[in-house]
Amino acid sequence: MKEEGFWILLSKKIAGEATPEELDLLEEMIMSNSEWKATAETLQELWNSDPVKPVAENIQKKEDAYLLHISRLKETVNDFDSATEMEEAQVISMRKPFYKNWITYVAAAAAIVLVIMIYPLTSNKEKVQDIAAIKPLNEITVNPGSRTKMQLPDGSQVWVNSGSKLTYDGNFNGATREVQLDGEAFFEVVKDAAHPFIVHTSGIDIKVLGTAFDVKAYNSEPTIEATLIHGSIEVINKSQPGTPKIMLKPHEKLVFNKFAIPDVKDQRADIKTNPDAYSYNIKPLRENIADTSIAETAWVYNRLSFEDERFSDVALKMGRWYNLKISIENEKLSNFRISGSFVNETVEEALRDLQFLVPFNYSIKNNEIKILKK
């Protein structure tokens, strides 16, 4: 804990946030340890280098300071060569506790030096703020064939579908609550008007205050779907930030085409007259239907549902659901539109049921299914 206290106090001193008592304690620690003294002097010198001077001059100054640091370390640290060989491994494993021994301190100090040397030379006043803005990230990855439910730091509930990845700030301490989604997730967001909730996807951003909605946004797929159950959501086209935002009403579904420009089906004037929004298609969900029976969110209740979808899209869903690869060898079969749902069926039982809707045969080998013309 003494070593960890040294690094905390040194960071606060460099950032200008240490109290007089903390500065006195740090000075006592430095005077009692020659290695810490060398490290503190070098990092302070690097931090104080003036970034408004010509680039070449600043780089040279940082290189000189770095060489001075290396020289000091050689004089004070035994087996210096072995310590520097560990540098790369220590940088890669930054998430792990690294205040275990002095060899690790050397690697950490070298990593800090390298970061400072490559730090953009156009910023001076914002040094401390930029470093403080680096947030810890949590990443949830769900394998095909699995689904999971979790709670975000603000209390919002999220169901993450198979083959999906959700990344979010570890504490939600900022002005907004933001997550990055590659895949499908259903959100029940805790209302907090002062801290909007934003879902980032590969094509659109979805901003909410408090609501329940589903987002299907696999990076590998050409379309993104947002289905609103209750509340309201605001959709922003990331590729055309100047376009008007689109507000969805409860029980509406938005389909965004990332690559093509389909016809606009929505009849509202703000969409119909906006040529930049032609990649959107908004349609209402079926009326008088329970939330648990909506095809777009049935997976949350462990049911695979599809409504008037192309057979090829259903096969893709089934592949993720059962954790296997399904390929359709005939284009005509791919374009059949079908509706249905599965709960506890095995993949073979599901395929046999689908044969009542589509005339096909299939073969199974290892983890791959081929759909063939009958």
Please give a structural write-up.
- This protein has twelve helices and 18 strands.
- By secondary structure, the chain is an alpha+beta fold.
- It folds into three domains: 2-132, no CATH class; 137-284, Jelly Rolls; 303-373, 3-Layer(bab) Sandwich (Phage tail protein beta-alpha-beta fold).
- It starts with a helix and ends with a strand.
Question: What does the secondary structure layout of this molecule look like, with pairings?
Answer:
Elements: H1 2-15, H2 20-31, H3 34-47, H4 55-76, H5 80-85, H6 87-92, H7 102-118, H8 127-132, E1 137-142, E2 148-151, E3 157-160, E4 164-169, E5 177-188, E6 197-200, E7 204-208, E8 212-217, E9 223-230, E10 233-237, E11 246-248, E12 252-257, H9 269-272, E13 280-284, E14 304-310, H10 311-322, E15 325-328, H11 331-334, E16 337-342, H12 347-354, E17 360-365, E18 368-373
Parallel strand pairs: 5-6, 15-18
Antiparallel strand pairs: 1-4, 2-3, 3-5, 4-5, 5-8, 6-7, 7-10, 8-9, 9-12, 10-11, 12-13, 14-16, 17-18
Structural features:
3 domains; elongated; 374 residues; alpha+beta
Brief summary:
The chain folds into 3 domains: 2-132, no CATH class; 137-284, Jelly Rolls (Sandwich); 303-373, Phage tail protein beta-alpha-beta fold (3-Layer(bab) Sandwich), CATH 3.55.50. The protein is 33% helix and 28% strand.
